[in-house]
Specification:
This protein is mainly α. The chain has helices at residues 5-25, 31-51, 63-82, 88-107, 112-119, 123-150, 154-162, 175-195.
Length: 196
């Protein structure tokens, strides 16, 4: 990635923390939750590695095609999984975006930023930016009603969750935490696409 180092490090921290949380979600007793968490962990750690500032570490030329192959395989898995659950379509777009960014960096890792400045935003980058910006706004809006609906009862809900009153739902299986995880990865994707 190009640009100042400190925003890149914040992005690395956000994506790595999200990936780590997704690894913890893989311990869920729900099979679908484990599958989704595995793909999201791969995305989080892949985004963290890709976001490391180029001034600190510049991957060798063979790393970008390897990234593209890895996320291409993840995209194929998302296509297969999308038959059962439409949520995997978002995974497909995310892995496709990672393939696109990897191939873009493989073609022109240093001159790419200057080409964007001269030619404007390419069509694929613009389309991905629109998708992920919309996804972030929609995901954020979906999280707000859960907080707002709790209102003054949020404390009571939090207390009952702490004492086991939520029918045994573990913190790794809570849907709002999974949505927050996806939201943070969406924000990271927008930042990475803007920095290309």
């Amino acid at each position: 990635m190009h640009g100042p180092a400190w925003p890149a490090w914040l992005l690395v921290a956000l994506c790595a923390a999200t990936g780590a949380y997704c690894l913890l979600r893989m311990r869920s007793g729900v099979e679908e939750q484990r599958r989704a968490a595995g793909g999201e962990a791969l995305m989080g750690f892949g985004m963290a590695a890709m976001a490391v500032p180029a001034t600190v570490f510049s991957p060798p030329g063979w790393a970008w095609p390897l990234y593209a192959a890895l996320f291409g395989a993840a995209a194929l898995r998302a296509v297969w999984a999308a038959r059962a659950s439409p949520h995997h379509l978002h995974h497909l777009v995310g892995t496709g975006a990672m393939v696109y960014m990897s191939l873009t960096m493989a073609v022109s890792p240093t001159a790419h930023h200057h080409a964007h400045a001269a030619a404007g935003i390419p069509l694929v980058t613009g389309a991905l930016l629109l998708y992920f910006t919309g996804y972030v706004l929609l995901s954020g809006a979906r999280l707000v009603p859960g907080v707002a609906a709790g209102g003054t009862g949020a404390t009571a809900g939090g207390t009952s969750a702490a004492t086991g009153g939520t029918a045994g739902v573990r913190w790794g299986d809570r849907p709002e935490l999974a949505r927050a995880c996806r939201l943070s990865m969406g924000i990271g994707m927008v930042a990475m696409l803007l920095a290309m």
